[in-house]
Amino acid sequence: MNDYLLFMLFEFVLQEANGNVFKELPRHLTTVKNFIRISVFVGLFIRLFIMSIMSYTGGTILAMAGNDCVCIASDLRLGEQMTTVATNMKKVHKLGEKVYIGLGGFHSDAKTVLDKITFRKNLYELRENRKIKPEVAAVMVSNLLYQHRFGGYFTEPLIAGLDPTTNKPYICAMDTIGCISAPNDFVAVGTGTEYLLGVCEGFWKEGMSSDELFEATAQSMLSAMERDAASGWGVIVYTITKDKVNVKTIKARMD
């Protein structure tokens, strides 16, 4: 709406100036008026109809922390703007025994980051002779993204897991150049983030058990799937506890 009002303001100014100013100017300066009008049209078209590369393939990922447990969930849709390409796309991947990574954004860049970070994780565990912690995995991903900041990867990683020794939950998300945000409650990336955060505020509470955490995560994701056209075709939820990892698939909007 702001773009439309800006365009109308430009149009009004140009029409007013047409009779008073432009008729007194040489012919080549009259072209400036048309150039401004076309520029505003093009800018408005880009803002309204051309999607960001970060939302080109769509998708939403959410992580929540509970009492010695974490949940990480994603939708199953892979798209090309508003065209659905696949309905069983895996966006959450296992990095360690209790460490998972979700990759939102442009799918091909997400796959590249996953391959590179898997290689670095394997090298770390061989060199250090110990299992990787979620905090270490987050720093590793952040370093990778920051190294490529001038020709970056169009992906927003999300890390969720438990410390292999203390079982302390850890969740974090980062932007395309690796700036880490590690809250204590929940974090989301992807096209449905704006629909998730308010719902998560209502569902999340401190000290939730694994069952309560799964329910809160699932209901939050289902709510976002109803509102985000670039996500959908079901939700897969990973519940990570100190004893095991439960994986459940939930039916959601199928369009």
TrEMBL record:
<keyword id="KW-0647">Proteasome</keyword>
<dbReference type="InterPro" id="IPR016050">
    <property type="entry name" value="Proteasome_bsu_CS"/>
</dbReference>
<dbReference type="Pfam" id="PF00227">
    <property type="entry name" value="Proteasome"/>
</dbReference>
<keyword id="KW-1133">Transmembrane helix</keyword>
<comment type="subunit">
    <text>The 26S proteasome consists of a 20S proteasome core and two 19S regulatory subunits. The 20S proteasome core is composed of 28 subunits that are arranged in four stacked rings, resulting in a barrel-shaped structure. The two end rings are each formed by seven alpha subunits, and the two central rings are each formed by seven beta subunits. The catalytic chamber with the active sites is on the inside of the barrel.</text>
</comment>
<protein>
    <recommendedName>
        <fullName>Proteasome subunit beta</fullName>
    </recommendedName>
</protein>
<dbReference type="InterPro" id="IPR029055">
    <property type="entry name" value="Ntn_hydrolases_N"/>
</dbReference>
<comment type="function">
    <text>Non-catalytic component of the proteasome, a multicatalytic proteinase complex which is characterized by its ability to cleave peptides with Arg, Phe, Tyr, Leu, and Glu adjacent to the leaving group at neutral or slightly basic pH. The proteasome has an ATP-dependent proteolytic activity.</text>
</comment>
<dbReference type="InterPro" id="IPR023333">
    <property type="entry name" value="Proteasome_suB-type"/>
</dbReference>
<comment type="function">
    <text>Component of the proteasome, a multicatalytic proteinase complex which is characterized by its ability to cleave peptides with Arg, Phe, Tyr, Leu, and Glu adjacent to the leaving group at neutral or slightly basic pH. The proteasome has an ATP-dependent proteolytic activity.</text>
</comment>
<dbReference type="GO" id="GO:0005737">
    <property type="term" value="C:cytoplasm"/>
</dbReference>
<dbReference type="InterPro" id="IPR001353">
    <property type="entry name" value="Proteasome_sua/b"/>
</dbReference>
<feature type="transmembrane region" description="Helical">
    <location>
        <begin position="35"/>
        <end position="54"/>
    </location>
</feature>
<keyword id="KW-0539">Nucleus</keyword>
<keyword id="KW-0472">Membrane</keyword>
<dbReference type="InterPro" id="IPR033811">
    <property type="entry name" value="Proteasome_beta_3"/>
</dbReference>
<comment type="similarity">
    <text>Belongs to the peptidase T1B family.</text>
</comment>
<dbReference type="GO" id="GO:0005634">
    <property type="term" value="C:nucleus"/>
</dbReference>
<keyword id="KW-0963">Cytoplasm</keyword>
<comment type="subunit">
    <text>Component of the proteasome complex.</text>
</comment>
<dbReference type="GO" id="GO:0019774">
    <property type="term" value="C:proteasome core complex, beta-subunit complex"/>
</dbReference>
<keyword id="KW-0812">Transmembrane</keyword>
<dbReference type="GO" id="GO:0043161">
    <property type="term" value="P:proteasome-mediated ubiquitin-dependent protein catabolic process"/>
</dbReference>
